[in-house]
């Protein structure tokens, strides 16, 4: 496949956008080569500026659970747009989507909409700090909660890809309030509680980590965090920006049967428009302005186009018979196929998967935390990535990302992908 026009567009973009992109991982820096410029997308496919068709395994990093240009979402946005694109005043639509989200997700009574996952997580910790009157938070190495200062400490995703998990510009003052723990290591969390008695406002965790590749929580890990939080008067925040409305209607809380105090959302909840949200029981949410003292606001928050897209998406997911079973079956089928092909070719690998989140690591050691995630062989990953791209298959341009499976994929797409993996694996 040729990427001539993408190369030209990238060169032009690089003159006026830092690195040619508006979000670092898009620049293909860790895999090399030229980022692909998309012209349009439909269902499971991307169509690029060179006329190539790619099967998409990233789906805008998660939101397109039901495929690109999903008709009910597109119609909802187009119809709303004709009636005005932003008011900065309340609309009935905001209540409708809020009611639906509250009915789908366990344990939440009120929800506030924002414009990104970053905002959702940033606001959630401010709320937790205000509510508990404590400053410190625990985050896990390799987890990513957006690019706000408190979280850019041993962050996963793009932050590791660029070798800067700790960003310049984050002050020591901010960094000292973020305590770091090892994912899947309850003893480590316990010792942080012992060393910081009555100081920890919240633990924030990706209930299935998706930003160091996919790393599932080990049995008892999430429940253990719940128990430790309860014993220490600390709030448990599930960052469900990836997992929310993807792993089940009620997200990871429902799947693992563990309740969080605050839940954050992004991606699927906006149906592809810029939406994030955070939610909790009344006691906590009533602490937020204008009811309570913790301030949080947004000119475009609850924007009618974004809410229309989100409502269309969540309504569909809510009544979409068998959706999560189908996603599980399709992704399990893909996993099995990839395993067989890589084994046949004698490639050393580990695959992690939860529902429709999956990633392939090129290392034999089980991947359970940030350290084991970093063991992956990046040179093999690069070859794998570019090999698949030549076969018309688009996976994330970084070894530290999860693939997001969409229901728009057919079994024929999956078979084609598995065959491509076989072809590429022979040359790894
Ligand atoms: N939390 C998680 C778990 C994420 O994966 C991401 C983004 N990939 C974010 C927060 C930040 O969301 P956004 O990029 O919308 O700001």
From TrEMBL:
Q: Where in the cell is it found?
A: Cytoplasm
Q: Which SUPFAM superfamilies match?
A: PLP-dependent transferases (SSF53383)
Q: Primary place of residence? A: cytoplasm
Question: What name has this protein been given in UniProt?
Answer: Glutamate-1-semialdehyde 2,1-aminomutase
- Keywords associated with the record: Cytoplasm, Isomerase, Porphyrin biosynthesis, Pyridoxal phosphate
Query: What gene codes for this chain?
Result: hemL
What cofactors are annotated for this protein?
pyridoxal 5'-phosphate
Q: How does it assemble?
A: Homodimer.
Q: Which family does it belong to?
A: Belongs to the class-III pyridoxal-phosphate-dependent aminotransferase family. HemL subfamily.
Its domain of life reads: Bacteria
State one Pfam family annotation.
Aminotran_3
| Catalysed transformations (reactions) | (S)-4-amino-5-oxopentanoate = 5-aminolevulinate
Q: Name the pathway it acts in.
A: Porphyrin-containing compound metabolism; protoporphyrin-IX biosynthesis; 5-aminolevulinate from L-glutamyl-tRNA(Glu): step 2/2
Q: Does the keyword Cytoplasm apply?
A: yes
